[in-house]
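User: I've been trying to design a sequence by hand for this structure and keep getting stuck. Would you show me what you'd pick, starting by listing the structure so we're on the same page?

Assistant: Good idea, let's start from the same input. This is the structure you sent:
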């Protein structure tokens, strides 16, 4: 099962840092997100796209996780020649993460 079956994502950026919020569709799925969508697993999922640490923040009141990905945007909007300089596609890519069935 892909993460997108249980949650949606929103992204933001500041300089060379991207943040991705993963929000459970239902509060009952939040504990599963906490257990399976770790900072280490997110960093491994993105592989060479992320050049810095990944930090996870838990927001249980919102049934959400927020990931801060440093070194994710090839220098940021004003420096990058990337087609997706804001990193909006990173949210969709994270939702392709395979979860245990």
């Amino acid at each position: 099962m892909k993460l997108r079956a249980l949650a949606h994502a929103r992204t933001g950026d500041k300089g060379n840092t991207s943040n991705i919020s993963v929000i459970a569709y239902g509060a009952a799925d939040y504990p599963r997100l906490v257990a399976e969508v770790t900072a280490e697993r997110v960093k491994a999922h993105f592989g060479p796209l992320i050049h810095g640490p990944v930090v996870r923040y838990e927001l249980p009141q919102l049934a959400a996780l927020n990931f801060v990905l440093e070194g994710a945007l090839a220098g940021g909007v004003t420096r990058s020649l990337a087609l997706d300089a804001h990193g909006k596609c990173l949210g969709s890519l994270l939702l392709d993460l395979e979860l245990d069935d």
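That's my pick for every position. To get oriented when you compare it with your attempt: The chain has a mean pLDDT of 87. The first helix runs from residue 30 to 36.
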